[in-house]
Amino acid sequence: MAFVFPSDFNPQPSLEGSGIKISSLRKQDRDGLAEAANDPEIWAGHPARTRHERVVFDPYFDLLLSSGAALVIRDASNWVIGCTVYYSDTNAPSRLSIGFTFLVRKHWGGKTNRIVKRLTLGHLFSAKSEAWFHIAPTNLRSQTATKRLGAIYMHEADIDLGGGAQTWGCYCLTRENWDVNDRS
Fold it and tell me: What is the pLDDT of residues 61-110, one digit of tens each?
């Protein structure tokens, strides 16, 4: 998984706000992230439904680590609660995307996802005016969450995000839509 980024964009920033810390994923984060991912409900609507199993998680972690763009998400007590990745679309490398995101269930349905998106989108929008999200057609939970941000479904595309081309729903969030949505 190799991504191309604009020269003025750092894909592994340190971001912090409202009790959430986001920083570069490191090899020493493996056990903490594995613990966070060790919940079948997190992956129930995801194409990789068994990612909670360590034998499936470890190659995924290696893929994230090799990307040079993965970020670990920690709560105020410094517990690993998830991860996210900035990446470029292999079909449209000039686009910046956010994905591979998951949070422990304790942080579902509350303010944490909004804080994570506020931090990551704020950073992305410093370089680009659009953020792209690629979501599996079966992942209804992520589709709903992404639409709540103000993203609009644009099209389906076969994209290789690591591990071979798959069909993804492509959603675009403009800076303007985010600004309006984040204020409401």
Answer: 999 999 999 999 999 999 999 999 999 987 888 899 999 999 999 998 88
What are the sequence ranges of the domains in the chain?
A: 15-183
Q: Structure pTM?
A: 0.93
Task: State which CATH number among 3.30.70.660, 3.40.630.30, 3.40.50.1970, 3.90.1170.10 fits the domain covering 15-183.
Answer: 3.40.630.30
- 124: tokens are 């992305």
What's the pLDDT band for 161 if we cut at 50, 70, 90? confident
**44, 66, 112, 133, 145 from 17: Cα distances, Å:** 29, 27, 10, 22, 20
